[in-house]
Target: Glutathione peroxidase
Amino acid sequence: MKIESKKGGRAMEPIYNFKETEMNGGIINFRDYQGKVLLIVNTASKCGLAPQLESIEKLYNKYRAQGLEVLGLPSNQFHQELDSDEETSDFCQMHYGVTFPMTRKVIVNGLDEDPLFTYLKDQSGKGRIKWNFTKFLIDKEGNLLKRFAPITKPEKMENLIIDALKK
Model:
């Protein structure tokens, strides 16, 4: 099933048709997120906002049993990510206790951008990702609820997450 783009009428695949590659090489199939609330975050280990990973992990642990999933997509587009996926994974686990899935590095803007980010930016109507830790909250039906600015603290998203989990 295709849905209409908010920007220009071109048909877009629903979010459940996307796949990403996990750092360990496994495939993340977004169909596995159907019926769950999903928080998607573009991350960067060396970013000053990286401590948000700890708060995101706390939300994940607190609400996972109720249906919250989190997916981190590291990007070096702003030159703040470590060289290898293994270094990124180790860093995020060691410094912030990250247990939610993280993908291999992606590009969030430009000609080679990851199709997921093309989709998310289109759905939000806000265009270009301006910095690391832009966050997207997806409801149980696969609809974008809200795009959050990089400086938005994860705790500020909690009430919206709770509301989405109740629906």
